[in-house]
Amino acid sequence: MSTVAVVTGAASGIGRATAVWLARDGYEVAMMDLDAAGLAGTRAQIEGAGGKAHEFAMDLCDPLAVGSTTREIAVTIGAPEVLVNVAGVGVAATVLETSDEDWSRVLAVNLTGPFLTTRATLPLMLDRGSGVIVNIASVGGLVGLSRRAAYCASKAGLIGLTKAIAVDHAREGIRCVAICPGTVETEWVGKILANAADPAAARNAMAARQLDGRMGTPDEIAAMVSFVAGPDGRFVNGAALVIDGGMTAA
Ligand SMILES: NC(=O)c1ccc[n+]([C@@H]2O[C@H](COP(=O)([O-])OP(=O)(O)OC[C@H]3O[C@@H](n4cnc5c(N)ncnc54)[C@H](O)[C@@H]3O)[C@@H](O)[C@H]2O)c1
Prior knowledge:
- The protein has 250 residues and is of the alpha/beta class.
- The protein has one domain (4-182, 217-243): 3-Layer(aba) Sandwich (Rossmann fold).
- Helix content is 48%, strand content 16%.
- It is built from eight helices and seven strands; from the N terminus they run E-H-E-H-E-H-E-H-E-H-E-H-H-H-E.
- The chain has helices at residues 13-25, 36-48, 63-76, 100-128, 149-169, 187-194, 199-208, 218-229, and strands spanning 4-8, 28-33, 52-57, 80-85, 131-136, 174-181, 240-243.
- Helix 3 (63-76) runs parallel beside helix 4 and helix 4 (100-128) runs parallel beside helix 5.
- The chain is globular.
- The mean pLDDT is 97.
- Bound molecules: nicotinamide-adenine-dinucleotide.
- Nicotinamide-adenine-dinucleotide (NAD) binds next to helix 1 and helix 6.
- This is SDR family NAD(P)-dependent oxidoreductase.
């Protein structure tokens, strides 16, 4: 059986780039996302390059769907060696502007989702005695970002979850690592820019947040996932790795 990697949020942006990169590394990739059409696009890209990918259109906030899909992956493709939690959502709001619904949705996708996938996948990794879980957090989990109250809380929680998993399971052959990107040019950021009063000015402002004066690319994040998940990353555990073009250095 092939070495299996599960990637959530694989229909778009960082998740798509990660799925494509890991398939190129030789993993058979099982992809979870709400967006069936986007998943089909990622699969076509992977298969076009000679890789293997499987689509699972589902809601990562649904514990039953996460449990049954993980079991299906284990039986039909193989027990995952790597789990990359990428799916996420954000709301532009201070605490005072955040509705109950938005708070619950952001926490559910960004924090409960990785908890559910990890809880479903860890027993399979523990049976084999090895596994790597990579959580895509954000610099927003380390510093406060303006009008991103629920988002920052969810990503700080995800970094805490990452460290707790590493502490509990390191001696059983499991590594768990968070990656904290700065601003990355994805479909998500494209939508934010399209909705801005002055999209060109908004783009310049977003680029200027990084010392490099540009946004990162999804491939730059996928490359770090590949390193962390692979054998060269074996001494990385429980860390929150920052990849932000110097955004948080200033
Ligand atoms: N783009 C950035 O600047 C940036 C910076 C730091 C961190 N991140 C993080 O990287 C991750 C990916 O961001 P992106 O910019 O690629 O976003 P994106 O919107 O392009 O992709 C997110 C994917 O998650 C999926 N998704 C959302 N809710 C879901 C659910 N309930 N169930 C299943 N799938 C769901 C979406 O369908 C989408 O395909 C997110 O966790 C985000 O917080 C992004």
